[in-house]
Amino acid sequence: MIHSLFLINSSGDIFLEKHWKSVVSRSVCDYFFEAQERATEAENVPPVIPTPHHYLLSVYRHKIFFVAVIQTEVPPLFVIEFLHRVVDTFQDYFGVCSEPVIKDNVVVVYEVLEEMLDNGFPLATESNILKELIKPPTILRTVVNTITGSTNVGDQLPTGQLSVVPWRRTGVKYTNNEAYFDVIEEIDAIIDKSGSTITAEIQGVIDACVKLTGMPDLTLSFMNPRLLDDVSFHPCVRFKRWESERILSFIPPDGNFRLLSYHVSAQNLVAIPVYVKHSISFRDSSSLGRFEITVGPKQTMGKTIEGVIVTSQMPKGVLNMSLTPSQGTHTFDPVTKMLSWDVGKINPQKLPSLKGTMSLQAGASKPDENPTINLQFKIQQLAISGLKVNRLDMYGEKYKPFKGIKYMTKAGKFQVRT
Amino acid sequence: MLESNKDSAKLDAMKRIVGMIAKGKNASELFPAVVKNVASKNIEIKKLVYVYLVRYAEEQQDLALLSISTFQRALKDPNQLIRASALRVLSSIRVPIIVPIMMLAIKEASADLSPYVRKNAAHAIQKLYSLDPEQKEMLIEVIEKLLKDKSTLVAGSVVMAFEEVCPDRIDLIHKNYRKLCNLLVDVEEWGQVVIIHMLTRYARTQFVSPWKEDDGLEDNEKNFYESDDEQKEKTDHKKKPYTMDPDHRLLIRNTKPLLQSRNAAVVMAVAQLYWHISPKSEVGIISKSLVRLLRSNREVQYIVLQNIATMSIQRKGMFEPYLKSFYVRSTDPTMIKTLKLEILTNLANEANISTLLREFQTYVKSQDKQFAAATIQTIGRCATNISEVTDTCLNGLVCLLSNRDEIVVAESVVVIKKLLQMQPVQHGEIIKHMAKLLDSITVPVARASILWLIGENCERVPKIAPDVLRKMAKSFTSEDDLVKLQILNLGAKLYLTNSKQTKLLTQYILNLGKYDQNYDIRDRTRFIRQLIVPNEKSGALSKYAKKIFLAQKPAPLLESPFKDRDHFQLGTLSHTLNTKATGYLELSNWPEVAPDPSVRNVEVIELAKEWTPAGKAKKENSAKKFYSESEEEEDSSDSSSDSESESESASGEQEEEGDSSEDSSEDTSSEHRSDSESASEVGDKRTAKKNSKSKGKSYSEDGEKENEKSKTSDSSSTDSSSEEESSSDSESVSESESEPESRKVAKENEKKKTKQDRNPLTKDVSLLDLDDFNPVSTPVALPTPALSPSLIADLEGLNLSTCSSVISVSTPVFVPVKTHVLLHRMSGRGLAAHYFFPRQPCIFGDKMVSVQITLNNTTDQKIENIHIGEKKLPMGMQMHVFNPIESLEPEGSITVSMGIDFCDSTQTASFQLCTKDDCFSVNIQPPVGELLLPVAMSEKDFKKEQGMLTGMNETSTVIIAAPQNFTPSVILQKVVNVANVGVVPSGQDNIHRFAAKTVHSGSLMLVTVELKEGSTAQLIINTERTVIGSVLLRELKPVLSQG
């Protein structure tokens, strides 16, 4: 399956390579560089590139290309999904996944990769198990290791690998038993010029942080499970229980994990919590354009909207912008033509606005499309779909855990066309 | 530093070396120094040395050999992690000399106790195969063995190995098909992907197409694109009632939950499975999941969108509800945008086209010009596909002609040209408009298109055309080659239609073309000149010049670039690239006639479950199977039954005997595996010495079984006694393969077994076992007729042979119709009641005998509220009453069933049958024969059991009767008439054996009729319940001796 893996940074240097079968020369990456050049933007590099003898499947994350070399037919999603899993693991191990971090921890990276893949076939991808095999580096451990000469490598086979609950290790112990669940919903929407919604959907996830002793068996039930249109589960969730009773029943992995992601379909009406008033105009003759946007709350169910950030990719013709915000700060990058305005909280009494002029390239014709506005925001303590967790019960253990549930609504891909 | 004594220094050195490897620097000259450390005690050093070795061993083969002995030692390490990693590294060292060593190691590891090691063995198979393909045959053997492995850990890896080494050996899958289907949910996600892909191919070769049944449905869906393949398929298959193979259904059903997986690859794999093998009407469910994947990373989106594009061509309906999910966002990368556009086009129909066109209008204005151009093409395609909007589209496109962006205009021109070509309607205005554009447009393709269009329609725009030609003649030299060619064409066409005005112009152009730098143009010039300018030499051709140039040209077809992709399996690399990737395996067409489905009949249970429509047991099972610790028991009990039936059916086929005994033992997990295996594998490839050693071990371990029960092995610490049971089961199976040296073990087992037999119902596990074995004997309520007679026979046959140890209830051989009077109509004042024993396991309780009561109303009035009143039952006896009957019409009759636990005694159950007005005391006294449930077992087991029920437990008598009464059929008929017993197949003609168990306690009741010389026979009954035994004997005797 996966022959080799190359890590390539944005400047086109291969800074790590790993081979699982016989060595593939790094010259194979030349094909990749070629494609990269053609694509001009990193985002546009095709994920699958055929070369005469190999196929290059790549993933672009954190400004690093992860290029897997394969030789024979294989489901491409298999490889891509695995590469993403690799990145996730790195992130889990080192906190961030960036070139310097990987270079610093090259040995751990190598050990982890060795465990994750055998002969190109995934071996252990559960981060729980990997962490038992190879302990993630922490400052404390580095110090201890240098003094005592002990190692990062676990010397025992993680029991999870063999047990029926492969995602949970045995013998977990905590003094404070806690289980936190975050219900996070993201609104994906396209709003057209006049402010009407073209498409809106809600994508939600339930992220959990479970620190419980022993082998707890949890059930989580919702007040209104019918809302969930399409769900995908962590492997720990018992599917049949969900099918029959709409209850999430599971033995949780230890630590942080994503329990569930769901989809509330476009068919349901989605409440859009913000609106954007905009007037952007370019004039044909003059080299100045007017720019004004106002953001305001709408259907927020009494909650405040926080963390509002407005970004917009201005047309190429825009040279500079002189704007004054009524609150927050704004920046405009004349090279990438990216305008970003960090609004912060929206105060319904005094709506934040950004006004000013744009200076256009002299002589250039007026751009025929106004820029789209991308919006980010957060609303605490609200799940916009109305989903509510009814109760959480624990079986199998005697102690009483501390339980907590948090709701949050965020903007996903929220676009306003102007 | 590597020479240093200190581990920390060595570690530091190794870390640096690994760093070098990672950067791609050559570190091979350090090989000798590194190899020395392979035996290091420090695990981290060891690991890093492994990393190094794997990287460089190929280059330094001789030196690498030095390390081999270390691995060989490590392969025997008690720690499974070390064994596994040793095997991994050993197999990763690509040195041809060690192939035999690797082979040996793989073989050994494939029989390892730890599933983790076995998993690694499966990986090693692929490595060895790529190193030395000549080992193929041997490796296939190992694969075959590992395929039978029950561990979910191993399944994925071994199927991967199978795909790599011998994907064509589909016959290896047959026996494991159902197991794989059932395990699928529990396999790790990567394994799932591989298994699903393999099973898709398998299904395409083994089942007939489920597609023809819903042809009608499909027709509606293919409006614009008719998919040739399916068309063909349709005509190929004759219409006949189609029933889906239950195995086919099993696969489809078991993969469904995986659509909910978090792993995109798994979801895609299931989607393609549904697409390729499920009935058309069921494919719909995948769309939701696929749309969900679109939220994921860009790369995943890319692949998924490609697949959706292909699907949406053939079946628009599937994704239509999700139309809006494919709307483009300005932040999407271009490739995603184009793919979404593609899908939107495919989904366009009369209903949604207006919304789509509005959406497209936004796209056209996009800053991403490449995308805008693609949108225009899309509009063109929509226009051709949906005739209602062609004019709207055309108008829109014409508007775009005044766009400021050149690329947009050019693209519009090209699309308009195509559209106009398709529509021979008058569009003079548009052409005129475009002619004007010639002044401003500079993109060659667009200019060429306009020129072509004018040339083609020169008769419709007689005034403009010569003018255009004049302009072009002026700028001819500075035009692009593409444009020049079109100018020549235009000239030629005009010359033919309007030679008066354009003769000179054309000649001028032809002259220019004659000396052009491009040979194509010179060529064309020469050709045109010869053709159109009449001269002496020009032959007959010039007469037809007009016909040649102004022939009706067929319109180009605007179609999706994904049109031709459907012959690749979805979700494959080949599909993504639209070329055949190395190692791509074609998905075969459905077979005309399904190959023999019986090849998969290893686990009869599954088949039978398939047939019971309610599938109650099945549901429960799979529900539980979806992991959780408490269910491990269940699983193992399952596996035990599996293994049994597997080996049993194999024992029918002589040649597989060895094999099956092997796998039956292998199936049971943990320690016992090796024991039973070594016991059964006498004379195997292993060395005699080792064998005897492990055999000895197995004995001792068996002796210690009781102890072990409490301190089970670490890997299966959670197992309870069910584990024991399953292991003992399989052992006794291998036993019955008649291996004298393991008699002792058999004895052991037997004891345990009978212990279980005595009260098999007290344990949940064994209960489940019974259930598993006997879907046929499920309550009457389930319509068993779904089983074809032959199947029943099949099942029965199998059941009879499977019952090596677990007593499994079989169907009653015979159900007597004899009814007993419960209440006479005279004494019941018109209410009559009869009862009889349907000989079915009671649905109300396991220990109850089911009784059916038929109530008749012989009066001419309604009898109301019939119910059971006071019960006078002897100690311990229980009764499950029927629900009160509200009313019984005159002359009406009703049959109700109830259950009575007679506690294995023939005591009478007295109770009151009450109506609204009266109460009648009635009682039921069961004939002893009805207190039994038939049991299926083999002759061998029968004898074994009989051997243990001697002495006190045996009663016998001699029967004297006429010889004609001793024909087998008569005996059989008589015996089963009296008692509800199961027939045990007998090897001897003169001995007839019947087996049953008592309903309440589950004790065995073994009946033997041995024909003696003359007209005598001996009737022997062995049972623990001596009282019942003797009663039965008394009842049987007169019946048998009667004429």
Low-confidence stretches of chain A: 157-161
- Major sheet of chain B, described briefly? 7 strands, antiparallel
Instruction: Give the helix tally of chain B.
Output: 45
Q: Count up the domains of chain A.
A: 3
Q: How would you describe the shape of chain B?
A: extended
Strand element count of chain B: 16
Mean residue pLDDT of chain A: 82
Structural class label of chain B: alpha+beta
Shape of chain A: globular
Q: Helix count of chain A, per DSSP? A: 7
Radius of gyration of chain A from the CA trace?
25 Å
Protein name (chain A): AP-3 complex subunit mu-2 isoform X1
Domain MHD (chain A): 176-417
InterPro entries (chain A): Adaptor_comp_med_subunit, AP2_Mu_C_sf, AP_mu_sigma_su, Clathrin_mu, Clathrin_mu_CS, Longin-like_dom_sf, MHD
Main location (chain A): membrane
Describe this structure in words.
Chain A: Keywords: Cytoplasmic vesicle, Golgi apparatus, Membrane, Protein transport, Transport. Chain A: It is a peripheral membrane protein. Chain A: It is found in: Cytoplasmic vesicle membrane; Golgi apparatus. The complex is a heterodimer of chains A (418) and B (1043). Chain A is α+β, with helices and mostly antiparallel strands. Chain A has three domains: 1-146, 2-Layer Sandwich (Beta-Lactamase), CATH 3.30.450.60; 176-268 and 381-414, Immunoglobulin-like, CATH 2.60.40; 273-378, Immunoglobulin-like, CATH 2.60.40.1170. Helices cover 17% and strands 42% of the residues of chain A. Chain A has helices at 29-39, 76-94, 99-104, 106-116, 127-133, 139-148, 239-245; strands spanning 2-9, 14-19, 48-50, 55-61, 64-70, 117-118, 121-122, 178-191, 197-211, 217-222, 230-233, 247-250, 255-264, 274-282, 288-297, 305-313, 318-325, 329-333, 338-344, 353-360, 373-380, 389-395, 402-416. In chain B, strands 1, 11, 12, 13, 14, 15 and 16 form a seven-stranded antiparallel β-sheet that branches. A five-stranded antiparallel β-sheet of chain B has the order 2-3-4-8-6, with no helix packed on it. Chain B has 1043 residues and is an alpha+beta fold. Chain B contains 45 helices and 16 strands. The radius of gyration of chain B is 41 Å and the shape is extended. At the A-B interface, strand 2, strand 4, helix 2, helix 4 and strand 7 of A face helix 1, helix 3, helix 5, helix 7 and helix 9 of B.
